[in-house]
Amino acid sequence: MTSPRLDQPREIRRTLVPRPHYDPESFGQVSERIARFLGTARFLVYMTVFIVVWGAWNALAPPALRWDPYPFIFLTLILSLQASYAAPLILLAQNRQDDRDRVQYEQDRARNERSIADTEYLTREIAGLRLALNEVATRDFVRSELQALIKELDNRDPRP
Hints:
Elements: H1 24-38, H2 41-60, H3 73-135, H4 139-155
Helix pairs in contact: 1-3
């Protein structure tokens, strides 16, 4: 049996109490959308307007229409509930991002290793070509040899 990887969740064990079935990928995508929204200025503006309206209504409305008197206990409860759901959703989104980053890092490392291997291969090939070119007669070398041969033939005695 192989040892479990620490960067992946454990397999689900069977229990006597049935658990609700959900798609972890869909749930993760929804939680990421929520976490992204919670980190926007729009969310802060909405929450600020909500709290100001709540406080103004419960402080300034006629006593018969107020549903949460001054210490605003119900508002505190709602904000605590929102925070208790927001924190795990944000953590779940961060874990999913960490998993994507880890996969991207592994792919980058593999790509880098292939690039290094390709570079080393091309370096060896270029070195081999340079060595082979040193043994090949270049145009200038052939031209100088032919000129030397022509001079030698011109300087040669016509007598046999």
